[in-house]
Amino acid sequence: MMSRTEKLWAKQDQHQGDRLRLFSAVATEVDASTVLYPGSFVDVAPSFVFPSVVYVDNDRRAEQFFADDGGVEEIIAANTIDQRARSVTFIPADYQTDLELADQSFDLLISLYAGFISEHCSRYLRVGGSLLVNSSHGDVAMASIDPQFRLVAVVNATGGTYRVQTSALDTYLVPKKPQSITAETLHRLGRGIAYTKSPFAYIFRRLG
Known about the structure:
single chain, alpha/beta, Rossmann fold, about 25% strand, globular
């Protein structure tokens, strides 16, 4: 019989291996040892690829999931792509609050389906570090108007395979309809901007 932890992960990993393929592709472009994943829920897949990950979520199910240290370790061990030691930390909190983490202490900040992560958590990302973000809830648009970020790659998905592209970036982030994009507008809309091209995710670099 599957444990609660296994059931939560199986639901997260409905397309088996999909998250591993995603973060493996990201790792070809991003050299990261320390990763911060606000709004992670139970998506422990970054730990399959990166050695030290801090997960943040205020969902009680996520807290219960990560409290099962042994179960989480088994999931990671069954999916890791190298033999490096893994460090997994879970913070049961709203990422919009002070997480009591040192500023500029992470190489990679992940923002997937969880709101305006870049707006609240960029302080924890080192200068030169990377932001992996998708267009859900408008965080790509928020990052695109933030002068501290520059687009350096996009992640395309085809048939369950992820590929990082670093060329022709000027053809991305082009709105389908001319519009003024501001933080106030994005907060009011609470959703992403429709662009002429729709990759799975974008990778920005923090400039300062």
